[in-house]
Task: structure prediction
Amino acid sequence: MDGYYDLKLVALSLVIAIIASYTALELAGRVSQAEGRSSWFWLVGGAVSMGIGIWSMHFVGMLAFHLPIPVAYDAGTTLLSMAIAIVVSGPGLFVASRPALTGPNVTAGATLMGVGISAMHYTGMQAMRMSPPIEYHAPLFVASVAIAIVASLAALWMAFHLRHKRSGLAVLARLASAGVMGLAITGMHYTGMAAAEFAPGSVCLAADSTGGMGNATLALIIAIATIGALAVTLALSALDAYFAAHTAKLAGSLQAANEQLRTIALHDSLTGLPNRMLLEDRLTQAVSRADRTGMPFSVMFVDLDWFKPVNDTYGHYVGDELLRAVAQRMTASVRRSDTVARTGGDEFVIVLGESGDARNAAMVGAKILEDLSRPFLVVGHDVEISCSIGISVYPADGKDVSTLMVKADTAMYHAKKAGRNGYRFFVPEMREAVLETGARG
Result:
């Protein structure tokens, strides 16, 4: 017994398949971006929406098929085919939303989806309750299942690679991919229909059952309802994506503001170097590291010579620019792992982590003296200065931060008194000079 198709309904089934495929591509991105309970909400909701879309394409395609006898569909079996479509859509979305798409998981997901879509189709065919039962042409039956698996594989691959792209070209790519997916799903359905063989004199028992559905307008009603549901799903997905992006933007702004506040709190506003608060933290870390590794470190107290005359001669603006230039040269003179901090005015402190013996600290001190003795070009003025450096070493000169700072400061005073432009290591004989203040220049 031969049947024929209503081409308008065939076209309608293809449109539904394409819209359902586009929705699936959108939902794959939404599921992958959602977190916590939200991700499960979109996975379950997306599976329902996607499954109903695939099933609607199938059922409209069934309604497009006409036999020369009254045909209807058993309600219970039809609903079972819908449930199968929904259930197999879940794993598909789950695989497409994973951080990575591996061969085993995409193969397993595509096989499950393909077999599930085939099961939906042939369960839907059983809803006709034909007597004698429908027989299937084996090669076409196998071909329909193969098409379903390949279509599912392509759908998962495209959904994974297009899920995070939002540009105009990405939208066009998603539309083109939806068209390919829609044609593949439709191809599976009509290949399965071609495999069906109806014996002459067959009777559709569902047409006489109380659960039979034979309304000619049913296809249009299902199409409108399905397209409406898919449109609502897409709208909700777009709205949720908008709010998620807005929330992420606010979170990014808040993080940037926090980082800015942290920078202001821990860094000198003029030079950008660590301030006294951050310096104390770095010194505490250096003590802990030295205790753990057994490697000493040095603290260098640096005070600029002849800085006040620069301010008096050229003004504070030139003085500020000079301090910035000094900070840059000192930072370039030490390792990235070392700390150069400004503690106020023209005073700087350098922490030489794991500096080893005093010779290494002396080499760094000599380099800083040489670098700062070169003239500075500041706002069109050639400015020459020097510096005096005091050095204390942990743990020989003290086992706490405050003691190291005091002794480095004391050694710096002695460098000043010795004629400036030099460095001195702290020695016990300097202890009496702690209270002297007249040596600053």
Notes: The longest strand covers residues 297-305.
